[in-house]
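Need tokens for this chain, all 446 residues.
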Amino acid sequence: MSTSNPAPLPIPKGFLNVSAPKLVLGGYLSYVLIGWIALAMPASSNRPISLLDHLFTAMSALSTTGLVTVDVGKDYTFLGQLVITLLIQAGGIGYMTFGSFVMLVTAKRLSELRGKISKATFALPDKFDVNGFIIQVIAFTFICETIGAAALYTVFKAKGMESPVWSSIFHSISAFCTAGFGLYSDSFASYRDDFWINLILSALSLIGGIGFIVLVDLWKTFRGQNKNLTFTSKVILSITFWFLVLGTLLFFWIEPSIQNLSPDSRLQAAFFQVMSASTTVGFNTIPLDSLAAPVVLLLVVLMAFGASPSGTGGGLKSTTFSALIGLVKSTLKGRSSIRFLKREIPGSRLQAATASFAYYLAILVVSMFVFFLTEKQDPMKLLFEATSAMGTVGMSMGITGNLTDLGKINLVLLMLIGRVGFLTFGMAISTHDETPEELVDNELVV
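Here are the structure tokens for all 446 residues:
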């Protein structure tokens, strides 16, 4: 009897010739379609909900954004909430991860197509061990979400909250996947001063948002397999730390709505909101509709750059921020090479960072133009909404449900682009390359 491992099912050659970005985009769209159909079933909702709102919810869940046009806890049944949870889980750790994990434990090797998509989904280096990484991701996710659910259940049970088991599971998954979906109409504003709920949600969100590559690197260093953390991990941890510290201090001193709180409650509220923006989890413990303009701008920056590569968050990522800072500093000092933390940044990484930033700004300008044409809302709130969607954050200043249909479609597209990744989306929809004639005239004066 043969003991060799069975090979994966053969993949049509046509699929292997399709670029990874197109496969990633197609995969997310197919999952959104499935989730949309599931949510539109009568058994999924407690009241009539429009097809557009079902689509909005499905995209928000799969993109782990958390923006909603309905009340998830009241308007969706347990079945609908379960569909949302599955979409959050699939989006949080990559839509191909579950299928890849099943293939690994049965066939013991990953098909070429799945490996191709997984590397694109997680932004992994070309020579990275995808097989081992996916198993580590699944195991670590399950452990963190289980511990988080158990911790939340203890707190929810003690407070006499309704359905503590399901609520703890739902919010643990939502927090770890930095989705920000909640079953309570005010998010966690009622628990602004509850230390344990703030701590558990913050821990889950930070672990999920900091990135799987960093967590694996930390674990290997702790076990002695690595002598030191990699440069990427050092950059991510450094920027995450300073975003949290400086952001909390600024929020603490500037935001008027928390000035009347006791110092410890004020500090806790400031940290939680800054953490929520920078990890892109999107929960809130204070009302966001009346934040001061400087604080809104602070959160916009954190939502754009706070999350890390290969984690569950969205946006431009902290590594893009580090590359841009290195570019500016090196240019001002007249250096021929671009450095950050005394290390040189490879040209390919710098090119990707600047291209992502430029594409981000272009998409933001177009989306704001659409908003200004279709919506009669405060421009600052519209900017906050667009940035939240692009960063898959889910924070809102209370205007999501009041948007026009075109405004909601605008956000659906922004959430899709934010989840897939700005460069990945751009490469997925691009079709034209330079012709030999166009390559002749290649000089540009700047």
